[in-house]
């Protein structure tokens, strides 16, 4: 009896192993070589790293510094003009950050910078307590507090008000403690944007490690434990694009959108105080275009993911390009003819129609990236 | 046997009668003698047979006694006799109101079933002094994830593995040496005597449906660590003193203070900082009335994987005062916990900036934490025939009672008040129901109501 059992186990094991062996050898069988394409990726990777990613983070760091200066000016001299200037500085910093969300890998993730800068939603309850019970906020103190009372959206709330009826704030409604907290927040904000920039340019861990930019540009070297090959880098870039398209379509827009005007939830709208939501969303997809095209909007043509796709499938390259542009246009069109902010559009019948059109455009783009662009990585003759 | 003896007596009697009458005719006499001789011979033969039978019966009896003795001996020597098995478990249904996000002030209701825990406890008594106990707990149906710190990957990374640990775990694995009631030693994975849940964790030992929420928001639930402890009792005083593995401050979080610093998430436990636990009770909480005090003290920085991120020791100290009054139908139990943490700001800062640690919004750790509960019940079976205990309970916890700098958020300061019943259809099973209210100490967050049902069992072989 026992022997019978052992034999049964042995047979099961052997057949399992055989099955594994079978599937393993299937994987290693090279597919027909005729549909493989060639592409020299070094220039593209170097360009994307330096001219798109690092350039974007450097701009963010500069805008962070400007935001801090604007808030200092506001505290020193609380005028409407200085409040408006600080609002503009916030929007200016918002742009490179949102565009940069198309490549939210590396130090922005590993150093936990994303939650420090862009935690959402804001904890208004705690924020009010903080403002009531404290004054003269130092950056060090604020750094110790939880992320939901700092970053972009806390600054936004202080600068623009609650955003329910409008996105204008009278400087008279800005209390001294609000202004001081804003200054402390923007100092913390500036420090993190600088850390992020430095991590790509100087050291990825802020200590002895190499600059993250160098690691991306030089995959496969002995000391590069991040990227073993150029395939890995391109995969990271493409997945970054897919990630933000998914987040905008299925998260940022869909969550507050709900299934009907009745289930729409304004409390989930990102950047609802400044009414900057639609700009955020289109900047997210412009960020996708930056990576895809290889240059920031308006800059001279350089190599981007499009050149890689072109080498494999020229028609697909053009199709994805137009799908990205289409998604941006459809997002921008949500505002309609009367400049309706997103938080109002989700409760408006026509607005909802325009939102659905934008969501469809994003879904189409996401499908193309996932099912047509990603498979090209397997056809690339490295 | 008796009948045979009587028969013999009758024969002898008959024989003496005939001999008395028989002296007249020699031929007849001879005949009679011959007859008597024959009868005597027969009797002799019968007697011999009887003796043989008696002898055999005696032998059989002896054999039987021997079999019984052997069986008895085997029974007392049986390994099964030294083995013990216990089990307890509970399943709950809760209906709570919850908030979608930190801005949300209109709660939504959600019902939930949970196969809370099934615990199996195996014990073995090696001899009079030595025994061992292993407790395996399956929480929420089993399986889970373990976290690993990989120091060789990149610049050191925290990796989650869906493989081991987590929700099926060894809650206790201890060896005990107990030469006398006054003194014993236990070592291995042992329960810390901090928090009443470590002592009273079977469903029939607490009145609420879920274990006390106040304790769960501050301490590891049924806290177990690797270490060694001494224990014993003298004149109704019970003492415990332990040296055990400490906590890791990388996992301290806003909402449950040091509780998630319990290193059960790792495959091995960092033991560069040890902790000390003491407890002294008068009376026995498991059996009824008692009062007790417990103290925990230990550093935590040394147990961080990135131990250079915090400059101070991150010392945790916890004082627990507890009491129970169980008399006739009355049940009253309560506990007050107060904890302090040094270098709370340093730990917050380090956790926020350690790559990959991702505490998100929960990095800020209280320099002080506080919790208490009081539960009171009346066992109605003393007055009626229904085996029901009615109870009222209050739980309070504030894991962020104070912070090193700035103002502590009141969002984590919670009070739960409830009433409910425990119904015991049989002694080993309890069915519970509880309804109550949760209050957050922030005025803009509305109070919410909760309802809970539970069934629990416990038995031992």
UniProtKB/TrEMBL annotation, chain A:
InterPro entries, per database record: Imelysin-like, Imelysin-like_IrpA, Imelysin_sf
Chief location of this protein within or outside the cell: other
Subcellular location: Cell envelope
Pfam family, one: Peptidase_M75
Signal peptide feature range: 1-21
PROSITE patterns: PROKAR_LIPOPROTEIN
Gene3D superfamilies in the cross-refs: M75 peptidase, HXXE motif (1.20.1420.20)
Keyword tags: Signal
Keyword Signal annotated: yes
All residue ranges annotated as the Imelysin-like domain in the record: 54-369
Protein name (record): Iron-regulated protein A
Automatic annotation (TrEMBL), chain B:
Coiled-coil zones: 26-78
Keywords: Coiled coil, Signal
Region forming the signal peptide: 1-22
InterPro entries the UniProt entry points to: Porin_dom_sf (IPR023614)
UniProt-recorded name of the protein: DUF2968 domain-containing protein
């Amino acid at each position: 009896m026992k022997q019978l059992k052992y034999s049964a186990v042995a047979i099961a094991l052997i057949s399992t192993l055989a099955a594994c062996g079978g599937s393993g050898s299937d994987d290693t069988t090279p597919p027909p070589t005729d549909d493989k394409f060639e592409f020299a990726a070094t220039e593209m990777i170097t360009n994307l790293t330096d001219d798109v990613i690092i350039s974007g983070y450097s701009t963010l760091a500069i805008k962070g510094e400007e935001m801090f200066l604007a808030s200092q000016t506001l505290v020193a001299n609380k005028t409407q003009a200085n409040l408006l200037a600080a609002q503009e500085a916030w929007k200016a910093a918002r742009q490179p950050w949102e565009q940069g969300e198309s490549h939210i890998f590396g130090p922005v993730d590993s150093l936990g910078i994303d939650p420090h800068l862009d935690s959402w939603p804001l904890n208004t309850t705690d924020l009010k307590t903080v403002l009531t019970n404290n004054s003269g906020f130092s950056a060090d103190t604020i750094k110790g507090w939880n992320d939901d009372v700092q970053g972009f959206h806390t600054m936004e709330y202080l600068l623009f008000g609650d955003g329910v009826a409008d996105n204008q704030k009278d400087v008279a409604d800005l209390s001294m403690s609000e202004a001081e907290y804003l200054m402390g927040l923007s100092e913390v904000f500036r420090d993190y944007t600088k850390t992020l920039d430095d991590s790509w340019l100087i050291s990825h861990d802020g200590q002895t490690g190499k600059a993250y930019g160098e690691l991306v540009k030089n995959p496969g070297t002995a000391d590069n434990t991040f990227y073993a090959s150029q395939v890995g880098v391109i995969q990271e870039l493409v997945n970054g694009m897919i990630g933000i398209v998914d987040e905008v379509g299925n998260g940022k827009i869909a969550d507050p959108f709900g299934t009907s005007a009745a289930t729409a939830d304004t409390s989930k709208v990102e950047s609802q105080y400044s009414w900057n939501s639609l700009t955020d969303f289109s900047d997210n997809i412009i960020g996708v275009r930056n990576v895809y095209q290889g240059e920031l909007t308006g800059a001279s043509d350089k190599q981007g993911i499009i050149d890689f796709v072109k080498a494999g499938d020229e028609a697909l390259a053009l199709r994805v390009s137009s799908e990205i542009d289409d998604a941006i246009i459809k997002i921008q069109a949500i505002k309609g003819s009367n400049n309706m902010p997103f938080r109002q559009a989700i409760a408006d019948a026509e607005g909802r129609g325009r939102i659905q059109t934008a969501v469809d455009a994003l879904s189409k783009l996401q499908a193309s990236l996932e099912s047509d662009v990603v498979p090209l990585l397997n056809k690339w003759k490295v | 046997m008796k009948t045979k003896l009587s028969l013999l007596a009758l024969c002898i009697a008959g024989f003496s009668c005939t001999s008395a009458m028989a002296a007249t005719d020699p031929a007849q006499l001879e005949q009679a003698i011959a007859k008597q001789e024959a009868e005597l011979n027969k009797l002799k033969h019968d007697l011999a047979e009887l003796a043989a039978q008696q002898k055999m019966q005696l032998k059989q009896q002896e054999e039987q006694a021997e079999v019984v003795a052997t069986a008895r001996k085997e029974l007392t020597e049986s390994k099964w006799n030294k083995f013990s098995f216990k089990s307890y478990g509970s399943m709950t249904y809760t209906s709570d109101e919850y908030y979608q996000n930190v801005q949300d002030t209109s709660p939504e209701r959600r019902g939930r079933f949970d196969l809370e825990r099934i615990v199996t406890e195996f014990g073995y008594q090696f001899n009079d002094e030595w025994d061992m106990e292993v407790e395996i707990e399956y929480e929420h149906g089993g399986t889970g994830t373990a976290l690993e710190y990989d120091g060789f990957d990149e610049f050191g990374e925290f990796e989650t593995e869906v493989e081991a640990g987590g929700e099926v775990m060894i809650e206790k694995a201890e060896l005990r040496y107990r030469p006398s009631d006054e003194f014993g030693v236990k070592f291995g994975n042992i329960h810390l005597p901090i928090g009443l849940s470590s002592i009273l964790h079977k469903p029939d030992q607490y009145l609420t449906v879920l274990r006390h929420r106040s304790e769960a928001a501050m301490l590891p639930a049924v806290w177990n660590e690797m270490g060694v402890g001494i224990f014993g009792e003298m004149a109704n005083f019970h003492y415990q003193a332990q040296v055990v593995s400490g906590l890791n401050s990388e996992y301290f979080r806003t909402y449950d203070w040091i509780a998630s610093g319990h290193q059960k998430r790792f495959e091995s436990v960092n033991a560069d900082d040890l902790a000390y636990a003491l407890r002294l009770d008068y009376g026995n909480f498991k059996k009824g009335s008692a009062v007790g005090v417990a103290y925990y003290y230990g550093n935590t920085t040394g147990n961080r994987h990135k131990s250079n991120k915090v400059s101070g020791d991150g010392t945790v100290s916890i004082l627990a005062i507890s009491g129970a009054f169980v008399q006739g139908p009355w049940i009253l139990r309560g506990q007050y916990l107060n904890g302090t943490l040094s270098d709370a700001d340093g730990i917050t800062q380090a956790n926020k900036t350690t790559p990959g640690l991702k505490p998100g919004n929960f990095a800020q750790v209280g320099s002080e934490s506080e919790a208490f509960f009081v539960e009171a019940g009346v066992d109605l079976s003393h007055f009626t025939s229904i085996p029901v205990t009615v109870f009222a309970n209050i739980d309070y916890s504030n894991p962020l009672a104070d912070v090193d700098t700035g103002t502590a958020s009141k969002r984590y300061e919670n009070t739960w008040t409830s009433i409910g019943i425990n119904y015991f259809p049989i002694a080993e099973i309890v069915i519970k129901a509880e309804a109550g209210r949760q209050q957050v100490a922030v005025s803009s967050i509305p109070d919410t109501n909760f309802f809970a049902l539970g069934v629990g069992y416990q038995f031992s072989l």
